[in-house]
Fold this protein.
Amino acid sequence: MTIVQRSWIACGSCHERDNNPDAPITLDDMTQTDSSGVVIPALPDVERRMRELDDRLYAKAMVQYRNREIHPEEECYQLDGGTFISEAAFEMIAGDDRERYMAWKNGCIDECSVRYWNEPAVMSYLIDRSLEEDTDSDACCWTDAQSIDYVRSCTLPPSLMMRHGVTRGRSDALTSAWHIVAAIEDGLNYALYGHPSIDIIGWDGTTVIVSVCQSDRAVAVMVERDAITMRAMLRGDPCSIPVTFDWRGIPRGDYASEHYRRFRAAKAAFDYAISWVDDMA
């Protein structure tokens, strides 16, 4: 494709700027045309427009993460290796720029490829190629296998939770058992979905689940190798008998691995605790 002339395309925003010199310049204001009249956007304008869109998408993704809106199994868009946004929000914000943004985000747009900015088939090809070359799994893409991590938003992660919640002499051994920690993290991650007010803290050597919405309620957590024990507290004092969730009590089923059974027990334990501290009834 040969550019035969540099033409400034007249549009509504140009006339608007005639009346308002401070009006922002849009992509349509500074473009080129090829010999067939196809609009070719200038790369600096594409960069500016995509950065603005990028900021809006990340801002929405941060709000959704803080609110714990995305279910761990939900199909969504990955903006990078650790940032996710719901499918509906991404498509609403990106609009017709969805594939253009993904191609830009994945580093596919340069002085050459920008000439095909208005050709969806080319943008789709560039995205597919970038995903094939993505060895780190951090490209912008649609995914049904996202790894959103609400656990890292808690004050006390499971590895430290074990140090607070078990007998001193066994804490190091439990903390080093990565498969136990992983199962607890998975269970906690699922339980945190939809509960933005929940936090896990250490208090006087004990792991405690709390909620900013119910300051008088808490649950003390005792983590052992094969079980998690929860005890509800009201205004700092125990108000129920301890309830223990042992993974060995989870039915094996046809395909129930040890990790899955540990995950089920952990999720049940955290669901129980959250239902107490986050109960707004």
User: Anything to note?
Assistant: The CA atoms of residues 188 and 226 lie 16 Å apart.
